[in-house]
Amino acid sequence: MPYNTTLEDRVEDLVRGWDGLERKKMFGGVCYLVNGNMAFGIWKDFLIVRMAPSLAAEKRHQPHVGEFNLTGKPMKGWVMVAKGSWDDTVALDGWLRIGRAFALSLPKKASKGKSIEEIYYRTHR
Fold first, then answer.
1. Of 56-60, 82-86, 102-106, 108-112, which gets the smallest average pLDDT?
2. Is pTM, for the whole model, over 0.90?
3. Which residues, at least 6 apart from 83, have a Cβ–Cβ distance to it below 8 Å?
């Protein structure tokens, strides 16, 4: 199953202009990196968000939120968020900002992906 490109468009509308943001195909979906650190992404119809493990444990108790587990072993500090928790713009923006804040708390890594501005320019000219 391909990933949700409608969600991808919504995410890119919200994050365009964020400094240090890049996009990279991963996990059969797309991930967004801030200063080279993974922050959030889209896998199938789910938004995946990286955060402190303690916050992830709290968020997993919310409706439509679960652990991110592709291989049988959950990814520590990641949650999988179903549409019921990101269907409005304010909620989606809140999840993206959690991932961005966590990525910004990590040491900067070398750039390997493509900037959102580069992708937007190429697809909207």
1. 108-112
2. no
3. 45, 64
